[in-house]
Specification:
Blueprint lengths: L1 E5 L15 H13 L2 E10 L7 E7 L2 E9 H20 L10 H18 L7 E6 L6 H7 L6 E4 L7 H4 L5 H8 L4 E4 L2 H15 L3 E2 L2 E4 L2 E7 L6 H10 L4 H10 L3 E8 L6 H14 L7 E8 L6 H21 L7 E4 L5 H10 L2 E4 L8 H8 L8 E5 L12 E3 L4 H12 L3 H17 L2 H17 L8
Parallel strand pairs: 1-2, 1-5, 2-4, 5-6, 6-7, 7-10, 11-12, 11-14, 12-13, 14-15, 15-16
Antiparallel strand pairs: 3-4, 8-9, 9-10
The chain binds 6-O-phosphono-beta-D-fructofuranose.
6-O-phosphono-beta-D-fructofuranose binds next to helix 1.
Length: about 475
């Protein structure tokens, strides 16, 4: 089978480039090894694009990276418009932030159709296509329209919300009906998969039996594939990173002070305001912790053209200034707030230098920062993970200190507990989490999905086309 992986954002194999995290960083090591072709957006747009206008095709490990310029006329409506102002808030249960227009939906459909035409270049009898994430819900249906009968898999990296929430997007039926063109639809958690099955039954009147559902496209399978990380690779990277100048500077700056770390894109789903609020509260209820712990919050700017994101960025800057003003001293800053990205290597070193990892999203498909923080720890003296129970990762990392990110007082108390946890308990919790990470790595996730895709497709004959 010749695998073609498709995602909006791709990652390049350059160890020192800043990473925005998420799926691109996670897929890089495994796609490199697999020999797959990875197709994605070049990040550039053009007026006169043609399906053959791949900006670049370069080698990537045993395979290739093919980057496509997207049509200028539709890009804004697709990316900032429908994908990130309608779908993203809906998928993260923020119906108050859903903003839709027919024009944006049209742009989303156009870009999906354009990508489908471009993918024809890689279509051959042995090809299987694995499409990633909410940017391409309708890509599979467009490919079927073009006559593609090959295996088509889809994996959603975000949560899939309750049926009434996704129904807040006026085009929900069209979107979900199109998704059934995929042979296999994968989710991060049982809850997401269950929500999707409930939607199919209640909104589309379909029968879902043992993870199979029939539609005009044939039979699709729906299943759960929690994404993992390259545990041993990340652990080794964290160990090596100790000598990186940025990591040494961070360690030197601590003067015996302990460090908590948060690493996130600036996104309302990440619970950043609540997290900073919890540190504010922590210094209020335990003033003895002043000067003995600080939070390093790396807050990478994201989707700045969307009002909800630029507002959040402003709000966070104000909040951090206030908290630092309230609790800080001439020679001590409680919140070290950095609005930029760092390379995977430097992040790995930062995680290892921090005694507490704070990963407290309001909603998250998986959250790989949680897994990376755990993998980066020194086995002899591991740090403590404070993890939101609303991150997909909480299903596996259940020996982290689980918190409700809406409960600011509770989070503050839990951070204090993390800081005073004896080393035997830290090690016990950490070892249990490492065992879970080893049981489900990025490699087993990748192989497991591909195997399930082959099986799911076998049941689909030439009657596949509408
Ligand atoms: O699943 C969500 C996701 O696709 C992640 O891979 C990543 O963290 C984020 O969204 C990337 O967003 P963007 O490409 O808009 O920066």
């Amino acid at each position: 089978m010749d695998l073609v992986v498709v995602s909006n954002r791709v990652a390049r194999a350059k160890a020192n480039e800043p990473m925005t995290g998420g799926l691109a960083a996670a897929l890089l090591p495994v796609v490199e090894r697999s020999g797959a072709i990875w197709v994605g957006s070049s990040g550039r747009v053009r007026d006169n694009v043609s399906k053959d206008s791949f900006a670049e095709i370069e080698s990537l490990g045993a395979g290739a990276l093919a980057l496509l310029d997207l049509p200028a006329a539709h890009y804004g409506g697709y990316y900032e418009g429908f994908a990130n102002s309608a779908l993203w808030p809906a998928l993260h249960s923020r119906t108050d932030l859903i903003s839709v227009s027919q024009d944006n939906y049209q742009c989303y459909r156009e870009v999906n159709a354009f990508m489908a035409r471009a993918l024809m270049r890689f279509n051959k009898p042995s090809a299987a296509f694995w499409i990633q994430d909410y940017h391409f819900l309708t890509l599979g249906a467009e490919m079927r329209e073009l006559g593609v009968r090959n295996p088509l898999g889809f994996f959603l990296h975000t949560p899939w919300p309750a049926r009434r929430v996704i129904a807040g997007v006026p085009h929900h039926r069209d979107l979900v009906e199109s998704m059934l063109a995929y042979d296999l639809i994968g989710f991060q958690t049982e809850d997401d998969c269950e929500n999707f099955a409930t939607y199919l039954r209640a909104e589309l009147g379909l029968e879902v039996e043992g993870g199979s559902v029939s539609s005009r496209f044939g039979t699709s399978r729906i299943a759960v594939f929690p994404i993992g990380i390259d545990v041993d690779g990340f652990a080794a990277q964290a160990q090596r990173a100790a000598s990186h100048p940025d990591v040494s500077r961070l360690r030197k700056s601590l003067h015996g002070e302990r460090l908590a770390i948060g690493v996130d894109r600036v996104d309302y789903s990440k619970g950043l305001v609540n997290r900073i609020g919890a540190f504010d509260r922590l210094f209020e209820i335990q003033p003895s912790l002043k000067r003995s712990v600080s939070l390093l919050q790396i807050a990478t700017p994201s989707r700045g053209g969307i009002e909800a994101y630029s507002n959040l960025q402003d709000e966070l800057s104000r909040q951090v200034t206030e908290v630092n003003g309230r609790h800080g001293e001439v020679d001590w800053t409680p919140i070290r707030y950095l609005s930029k990205g760092f390379s995977q290597t430097v992040l790995a070193g930062f995680y290892r230098a921090a005694q507490v990892g704070v990963v407290t999203p309001l909603h998250d498909g998986m959250n790989l920062v949680a897994k990376e923080y755990v993998a980066a720890q020194n086995p002899i003296d591991p740090g403590v993970l404070v993890l939101s129970k609303f991150a997909g990762a909480a299903n596996e990392l259940d020996t982290a200190l689980l918190v409700n990110p809406h409960d600011i007082d509770g989070m503050a108390r839990t951070i204090a507990t993390a800081l005073s946890m004896p080393s035997t308990e830290r090690r016990m919790r950490w070892e249990a989490m490492m065992a879970k990470l080893r049981a489900g790595t990025i490699h087993s996730w990748f192989a497991g999905f591909i195997e399930a895709l082959e099986t799911a497709h076998t049941g689909m004959g030439p009657s596949l086309l509408p």
